[in-house]
Amino acid sequence: MPAPADFLKFVDGNEEAFIQRLASAVEIPSISGDPVHREDVFRMASFLESQLQAYGVETKSVPLGSHELDGQKLQLPPAILGRIGNDKSKKTVLIYGHFDVQPAELSDGWTHPPFKLTRDESTGRLYGRGSSDDKGPILGWVNVLQAHHDLKIPLPVNLRFCFEGMEESGSEGLDEFILAEVKKGKDGWFDGVDCVCISDNYWLNTRTPCLTYGLRGLTYFKITVSGPGKDLHSGVFGRMVYEPMTDLIALMSKLVDSSGKILIPGVDEMVQEASEEERQIYEKLDYSIKDVEESAGGSIALSDDKATVLMGRMRSPSLSLHGIEGAFYGARQDRDPREGLREVQHPNVNPLVISYIESEFKKLGSKSKLVIEDLHGGKPWVEDYDHWSYAAAWRATEEIYKQTPDLTREGGSIPVTLTFAEALGVNVLLLPMGRGDDGAHSTNEKLDKSNYIEGTKLLGTYLYEVAEGTKGQ
Amino acid sequence: MPAPADFLKFVDGNEEAFIQRLASAVEIPSISGDPVHREDVFRMASFLESQLQAYGVETKSVPLGSHELDGQKLQLPPAILGRIGNDKSKKTVLIYGHFDVQPAELSDGWTHPPFKLTRDESTGRLYGRGSSDDKGPILGWVNVLQAHHDLKIPLPVNLRFCFEGMEESGSEGLDEFILAEVKKGKDGWFDGVDCVCISDNYWLNTRTPCLTYGLRGLTYFKITVSGPGKDLHSGVFGRMVYEPMTDLIALMSKLVDSSGKILIPGVDEMVQEASEEERQIYEKLDYSIKDVEESAGGSIALSDDKATVLMGRMRSPSLSLHGIEGAFYGARQDRDPREGLREVQHPNVNPLVISYIESEFKKLGSKSKLVIEDLHGGKPWVEDYDHWSYAAAWRATEEIYKQTPDLTREGGSIPVTLTFAEALGVNVLLLPMGRGDDGAHSTNEKLDKSNYIEGTKLLGTYLYEVAEGTKGQ
Ligand SMILES: [Zn+2]
Ligand SMILES: [Zn+2]
Ligand SMILES: [Zn+2]
Ligand SMILES: [Zn+2]
């Protein structure tokens, strides 16, 4: 069933207050990857918890232990759990989101201060780090709660919340917590959950809402090549010694070619070629080469064929070289590059990668030393979209946006998705709020005001559509 | 003729004062490559000028104009000129040195603060940025001046000084100044100069003094590959677009291999293979594979054959990859690597390098954009060591060190060397003060106290040996 008209009206009438809510959240620079900002992640957790409490949600702040970051021992930010409704005749929906953000500095090229929500009245864009990833969406849920609280309308489903503060840094501590809760059975926080809804990705383009049923995994490697005991002057040592930089560049050049083809034997082959039928799915998506070029800011698509480009993102493994640490004048001690491999369906790609790099390094015949580290990663995930939760989201999208949603798979990873799917044994839906050009993790991240407001309506409406059938239907 | 005993005694007796002089100079962080420290380079120029004046040298501070650095317009540090003696019956020696230094920060791995001269009493080492490159040597000349001034002994030759403050940053402005002075003929500052002596390099090892008669040139390129308009998330764009980082790594991997061989066709071939006779010169030098490994801090020599390794440094071209600017998470806008090519005798290698990189880039078939910049460089230089100035330095070395000097060529570049040789048409001698493990441009740069003190004696004695013949001999 559609959401009550009062709810939709409330959302439109409280636009300014909702934007102010997002502005308050963006002002807290909750960067999980920077020890300097760890306290801000805790502040952001408290902010979110108090918002939930204000609208009648029972909350719990769960410590997740400590970890080491940049040589410092730090407390992990807590998971913020929430519970509202316990009606056995209603379905129970678990909502996940994260309140940490990527780093951002004005000097990276931001047009506005990244931690001050800045409105562009002419375009309706709300600029700020975290506006789209993922503060906008989690506050969309808070907006839904406020509407029901203030209007004194009961929620159509029971809700459980699980918000974390380490998503941008490998979700440390969360998997263990979820698994431990599930082990508790009836006493666990997630007992009775019928489906999971995550709003932490984006439309494929800037026009068409989508439902997302697959994510690539990620494995992240760090390769260090070392040799001399200190920086060396190329005038004094050039062509006398093995230079780690030369070896490292040689290794990195053997991983992927300019066209995106992965050169590690067996990796591309792990994914079956698409059948003509599967290709049709990609042909039908509302997407064009112009879309990718607009969002990338350059005419740099790997192909002129839309389906090929979309399959590159959604179903093929990809390998990106993320840089080399340090800039210097000689043959420096350590080279510290990072390489990220996005993969589909084969979580055991890592040994293949490591043994390939080792064997290529041996071929160089260098006296440098090689260390390969397997850093944080995320598992790939594909969901069954022939499920009542997807059907509910489909109807809700048609009601709010008057458009048929695209059904997409995504290139990025949200590590917890598969954990929920496996540990809870329920369907997981990705229901994005933002657009394809929002620029998550990039400079000038934004959320369109219309996506924030209509998105809030969408999230609320989704709950009513989920409730349409009685429990178990 | 040997130097007077009084001079040698004065140097030994003033060891502490001389070290204090070096300490005062090291305390001025005269980093020419950093706009923040430009004022310190000017301070260092004044310090040096006042020292010269104190010992009777007529000086002149010559403005060299302005330039742009990191987007700022800056005044270039002045050249400090000096003149003492005008006796037509004496030879006239021109001394060159530089008072600017490389950057240094404690966090780079220095054991002591880099801009405080720190004595290790047990080893006799004097640690500090510029101690060996090139403040120690230029103050060695000041020590010689002080000795003659305080002892009231006339100098055996006429001296001219030319000290600059931009050597570590491409000697900007200096060539033009020298050429303009030479054009003035009789009125030019360098009129009447019979030979040039430069103390700005190092012994080949830690045991044997040397005279240096050749330097490799340097050409320095910056390659920028760009594509997208902003940082891109590898999860969203991986395998959809051409990634500049992939293209850049591919290009860099095609320049040099792990064994040091230059892959740009024609570059290695520009230098003739060594005859068996020339090979013998390298075999005879007091050098071992252990020396290179000790100074590099690792067992990383390219060969077990001493002559091969030495020829790699002294007569072969070498190509070092100096890094990639930036560390990041996505396919970033610009990649900004630097590549330095040390070459011998073929200053016209640049067009070859540029057209090779361009053609390799075309082969990639990428839609990224390539820009190659040819940054500062230095010309290669080889001198005739069968000259009275080298003979004088040879005798002076035997008198002070009781050792026969090595005759070496060097891997590094001192751009002004060739300018002096060509513009003045006189012999240029490189007479180093420091040892092969001093670590110029590296962390923990040092000068051994004995090199500073005996080196001061060597420079003074060299002047007496030059004076041995009457002018014109
Ligand atoms: Zn996110
Ligand atoms: Zn994110
Ligand atoms: Zn120098
Ligand atoms: Zn230097």
From TrEMBL, chains A, B:
| Keyword vocabulary terms for this entry | Hydrolase, Metal-binding, Protease
Q: Which PROSITE patterns match?
A: ARGE_DAPE_CPG2_2
**Family per similarity comment:** Belongs to the peptidase M20A family.
Q: What's the protein here called?
A: Peptidase M20 dimerisation domain-containing protein
Q: Name one GO biological process term.
A: proteolysis
- Give the matching SUPFAM superfamilies: Zn-dependent exopeptidases
The answer to whether UniProt assigns keyword Isomerase to this entry is: no
Q: Which organism is it from?
A: Hericium alpestre
| Database matches in PANTHER family | BETA-ALA-HIS DIPEPTIDASE, CARNOSINE DIPEPTIDASE 2, ISOFORM A
Q: Name one GO molecular function term.
A: peptidase activity
Q: Which InterPro entries match?
A: ArgE/DapE_CS, Cyt/Met_Dipeptidase, Peptidase_M20
Superkingdom of this protein's organism:
Eukaryota
